[in-house]
Amino acid sequence: MRQQSKLKGMINLNLYRWIIAIIGGTAILLGGVFLFLIFSDINEQQQKAQEQAKEQEKFEEKVEAVSVDEDNLPTESFFQDMLHKMTHQKVRSDEKWAGHLRITDERIAEMQAVLNNIEGTSKEYDHFDFYERTLKAWGRGDFDNAVEVHNTIWDWKGGSVGKAKGLLSKAEEKQYIETHFE
Questions:
Q1: Distances in Å between the alpha carbon of 42 and those of 31, 36, 162?
Q2: What is the spatial distance between Cα 28 and Cα 23, in angstroms, rounded to a whole number?
Q3: For 109-161, how does the pLDDT look when each residue is reduced to its tens digit (9 = 90+)?
């Protein structure tokens, strides 16, 4: 009987050791998987940041170094960049790395004057009608087209980061203005 008790005790001890070994092994395995996932996520984020930096560089390369032509008129690329930067005041997007330009009545009027100067000449921009429709609406205080304007120019420039997803609320726009212009 004593031997049987001793045998049961040894079996219980061995079973206890096996249970501890299984729990310990599982904990080590789960810890390894957890660390792998953390390091994989960090690596993914680093790769994403590098890709975004490359995309920004590509975008900036497409912006012409010269912003005006020999007649002191803005190049079409510069004109596009101005409109694009202005839309940032009105649109919601994850990234707004192309810059910021405040929308003012004076700026809209100046840009409309540029269009008036080049209309029907050899200097007329390829997307003249698009710019004219945009600025006419903006001149009336109608910015409902800001997402379309942003994303159209974003597409023309080969954008892949920062696509506009909607219009900012009045409060969000106020915060944007305070952050970037005041």
A1: 17, 10, 21
A2: 9
A3: 999 999 999 999 999 999 999 999 999 999 999 999 999 999 999 999 888 88
Question: Is the Cβ–Cβ distance between 111 and 175 less than 8 Å?
Answer: no
pTM of this structure: 0.63
How many Å apart are CA 180 and CA 102, to the nearest integer?
A: 8
Neighbours of 63 (CB within 10 A): 16
Q: Determine the Cα–Cα distance for residues 163 and 106; give it in Å rounded to an integer.
A: 27
Collect contacts of 96-103 with beta carbons under 8 A, ≥24 apart.
96/162, 97/56, 97/161, 97/162, 98/59, 98/162, 100/180, 100/181, 102/177, 102/180, 102/181, 103/138, 103/143
Q: What is the phi/psi pair of residue 49, to 5°?
A: -65, -40
